[in-house]
Amino acid sequence: MASKREDDHNEPVNEQAVANKYATMRSELNQIYSKITELEMEVSEHSLVMNAIQPLDPSRRCYRMIGGVLVERTIREVLPAVHRNKEGLEEVISRLNEALEKKKKEIADFETQYKIRIRKSDGETKDENGRKEGSSQGVLVGPASGSE
User: Where is this chain compositionally biased, Basic and acidic residues type (predicted)?
Assistant: First the structure.
């Protein structure tokens, strides 16, 4: 009988532990998503810089921020470094995408193991693309009337 009471007492704690672990896993997934987005923005910036300086004279002076310090260099020196940085960022993004897929699978396995289902709030539904519908608030503007 004492073990039965202990099991009853441990069950809510166990559910809470499962919920906490699930929330942690979802948080990690969101962190990976945000890091990938951040790095993709940096790759885009590197591409813009490369496209802007590539047609210019290689001996022309340009400035590059290195560790918070603005350094004067030539385009000949800067262009390969920017290209290497871009390639490095792309490699990190591919690794993060692999980690993202691994984390998604881990979360899916965790959901099936503990029979977790996400409840949607009443005011919103999601379509196949994951966009929310029905919960946005906007302004509806009618046609301008000519007879004021």
Answer: 119-134
